[in-house]
Design goal:
There is one protein chain. With 123 residues, this protein is an alpha+beta fold. It contains one helix and ten strands; from the N terminus they run αββββββββββ. The protein has a single domain, classed as Immunoglobulin-like. It is 16% helix and 37% strand. β1 and β2 form a beta hairpin. The longest helix has 20 residues. The radius of gyration is 15 Å and the shape is globular.
């Protein structure tokens, strides 16, 4: 049991470090293959990236609105639990998150299977 706790803690810390120092945007298709930015790729941005619990933030994407039909974004905690899920049919969505402090992954999934990721830090 104690060993599992250490492994989970290590994974969480590794994920946090990777997210903290990651400056490259990437997309992932339904086959879990990453694509380079040189192809016609788009961004997913959270503004501001660090917020206090209950403070509004905006999720912004450069994906054209015609490709957002049927798209959804998910916000998950470090354990992978989805804490918010909404349709995103415009290039921005403003919301608040009343969850525990921590690092959250924001994922935008298009109907085509492409997925874009951003990070949100909740204090």
């Amino acid at each position: 049991m104690k060993q599992n706790l250490h492994v989970n803690l290590f994974k969480s810390l590794l994920f946090a470090l990777l997210m903290a120092f990651s400056t490259v945007s990437y997309a992932q298709d339904s086959n879990n293959e990453t694509s380079s930015i040189d192809e016609e790729e788009y961004d997913l941005i959270v503004v501001p990236t660090t917020v206090y619990r209950g403070t509004p933030f905006t999720i912004i994407t450069t994906v054209p609105e015609e490709q957002l039909v049927g798209a959804e974004f998910l916000i998950s905690n470090m354990n992978g639990k989805v804490v918010a899920q909404e349709l995103m049919e415009t290039d921005h969505y403003t919301m608040e998150l009343n969850e525990s402090a921590g690092i959250y992954m924001v994922a935008l999934r298009l109907k085509s299977g492409k997925a874009y990721f951003a990070r949100l830090v909740l204090k």
